[in-house]
Amino acid sequence: xxxxxxxxxxxxxxxxxxxxxxxxxxxxxxxxxxxxxxxxxxxxxxxxxxxxxxxxxxxxxxxxxxxxxxxxxxxxxxxxxxxxxxxxxxxxxxxxxxxxxxxxxxxxxxxxxxxxxxxxxxxxxxxxxxxxxxxxxxxxxxxxxxxxxxxxxxxxxxxxxxxxxxxxxxxxxxxxxxxxxxxxxxxxxxxxxxxxxxxxxxxxxxxxxxxxxxxxxxxxxxxxxxxxxxxxxxxxxxxxxxxxxxxxxxxxxxxxxxxxxxxxxxxxxxxxxxxxxxxxx
Length: 281
Known about the structure:
Elements: H1 2-9, H2 15-26, H3 36-43, H4 47-56, H5 62-72, E1 81-83, E2 86-87, H6 92-113, H7 116-128, E3 131-136, H8 139-152, E4 157-160, H9 164-171, E5 179-184, H10 190-201, E6 206-211, H11 216-220, E7 223-227, H12 239-259, H13 263-276
Parallel strand pairs: 3-4, 3-5, 5-6, 6-7
Antiparallel strand pairs: 1-2
């Protein structure tokens, strides 16, 4: 499919874009774990050149292009493959190296697709709201608990429960001055979709952290922060999606703490230093 699209737009591509297109065709497998910055460096072009190529192929960005590219790669049935490029017979060192590459590519990809305007609006929503309810299923829920813990530090009234029924009850108490945060890799988690619909009925603003592309959660949420969308739904360990979610949360929290920095946060830092390095009596 990708090769067909490239052939169709070939006459409209610049010399640099043709060079990148040729590299993509020859190195499809390697591109799975490659960031846009790495691809640009290997071809001695700018990331803008690659984004223009993606646009000419009909994609919104490099992430959407990679999703289609990975989906077009023929999948071989192999009982020795755990997930992605990790094999059951890999050595300990090989597995560690592959996990590191997956984590790094996920971080690089997440930072390359961040929408600064949406991130800034998300910070405003958190600062200005009165109460916050966070929900996610599985590993997304664990990321939600970390977000909850950090927001408590700036005295936000925040709740994150793994039980959708409890969360539903909490959302029913919210109004337009509050906020619901939904974390879902797929963008189609039934419990998350239901909670967003419930929030919408009460005009409660919502922030979704979910993968790029069209989904029910993206269409229902007031504001969306995107994560990478390269991970297959059948994966056993959500390495890419979890790292991407954590990267988004870290960007959100760090900028939020800078905006909310005051004497209270300074005191927390000083007390933490005192506990770590108690003065000698």
